[in-house]
Amino acid sequence: EPEVTQTPSHQVTQMGQEVILRCVPISNHLYFYWYRQILGQKVEFLVSFYNNEISEKSEIFDDQFSVERPDGSNFTLKIRSTKLEDSAMYFCASRGTFLNNEQFFGPGTRLTVL
Amino acid sequence: GQNIDQPTEMTATEGAIVQINCTYQTSGFNGLFWYQQHAGEAPTFLSYNVLDGLEEKGRFSSFLSRSKGYSYLLLKELQMKDSASYLCAVINAGNNRKLIWGLGTSLGVNP
Fold first, then answer.
1. Who contacts A63 (Cβ-Cβ below 8 Å, separation ≥6)?
2. How far is C-alpha A113 from the chain's CA centre?
3. Strands B9-13 and B60-65, sheet pairing
4. Contact B44 A105 (CB under 8 A)
5. Which terminus of chain A has fewer CB atoms gathered within 10 Å of its CB, N or C?
6. What is the DSSP string of A38-52?
7. Are B96 and A43 an interchain contact pair (Cβ–Cβ within 8 Å)?
8. CA-nearest residue of chain A to B47?
9. Strands A10-13 and A109-113
10. A106 and B33 in contact by Cβ < 8 A?
11. In chain A, which stretches have pLDDT less than 70?
12. From B95, which residue of chain A is nearest by alpha-carbon distance?
């Protein structure tokens, strides 16, 4: 069964460093998302991506964040200068077509900023 | 504003039935999901409701009333492995179909 994969599973970084979180969505899916979940808090929408551009972003997704689909398979989230409050689980999700609402989630990357 | 409310915690006994409620007020509605999440893991899909009524899927059922902004997840024949958080998420209006999440209900199943 096709699945969304994410790497790394756990990333530890120093405050101010850049991190890139990687996702490989399901191959024929068209819509891609990043969500995050700070420990003990609700899952929060960060950004959605369709047709090689951002279709919507939340207030959390400021200038420090960017997303890219550098080739036909990878979907990356970059945080340019990490802050302590960026420590969270980051989930990538993909969705097939416009009419299909189900989002398939990757296993997540746990980001720890020290 | 957009708000999704669920009870924070529930406990139940193995073999029993439990109902987890979710109420929502969102700027638009394209459907409602229930996800299960074990600690440190990604949410996994349980059910999807877009029309009013009950959807049954094995031991799990989900109900939706759009006019009341209300849904519930019903778990039957509880097993120890059902101990997890259960997340209610609403698909927002618009083409992006982003998910708006509740905080989740932590369910503990006791022997």
1. A80
2. 16
3. unpaired
4. yes
5. N
6. -TTS-EEEEEEEETT
7. no
8. A102
9. parallel
10. no
11. none
12. A98
